[in-house]
Amino acid sequence: MQEANRPTSSSEEIRIVRAEFLIEPFVEGFPGPHVEAALEACRAAGFEPDVGAFATTIDGSFDAVSAAVDHLVRAAYENGASAVQVRVGEPEAAARFGNLHDALERMVGAVEDELGSPLADLGREGKQAAVRILNERGAFLLRKAVESVGEMMGVSRITIYNYLNAVDKAAQ
Q: Taking the domain 3-97, which CATH number applies?
């Protein structure tokens, strides 16, 4: 990524974004002319694209990235692309979401922040509220989540299942 597309002065706030794109058809190990043309369009716009296993990213000012995305989409289609998927957002978004391995810990941390206390320190009603919130956010779809949350709360998995049953009954 070229530094010319990054803010150089603190006196003027420039919105920095990340464009993540995937160009189809996708052939592992062979990017094809449609992908090469899109990458060259990025380079012509002053970016050095970060080519990942499934998608490619560029970071820069909103205006520069928007213009580059327009050029890369056109170049890809002009060279045989069947589809171009683009997602534009703040560069920090990827870091905020992390990976699945620590998803439960992040969810629990958010609930603890909301409720103002670690799960283990909550009373019965607080623990029930925490289980309800975690359930609404899909935490218990994760493998071993019931056992892990039970350990964090200092209760058995049976207690967590009872709380979940109570949540289900209240919803009906």
A: 3.30.70.930
